[in-house]
Design brief:
Elements lengths: L1 H38 L4 H12 L2 H17 L4
């Protein structure tokens, strides 16, 4: 029984290691896309914000934008 459990644990650890490697590769690919965008004149910082906003639920995004507008108005920025 213990040997089967040990094998299962080893397989799970190996899967995690493979996925971590894939994740690193994907992160490198994303970094390359941002570098390409910067090379043609886009602002990667703004692009990252847009990606973050697009991931958000529309209602959460709307609420965040309203609060941001309120704060900006209170500070004379908007």
């Amino acid at each position: 029984m213990a040997e089967a459990t040990d094998d299962r644990l080893r397989l799970l650890i190996e899967r995690i290691e493979r996925l971590e490697e894939e994740k690193k590769g994907i992160a490198d690919d994303i970094r390359d896309v941002y570098a390409e965008a910067k090379a043609v004149g886009y602002d990667p910082k703004i692009m990252r914000q847009i990606v973050r906003l697009r991931k958000m639920d529309p209602n959460d995004r709307s609420e965040m934008e309203m609060i941001l507008d309120t704060y900006k108005a209170a500070l004379g920025l908007g």
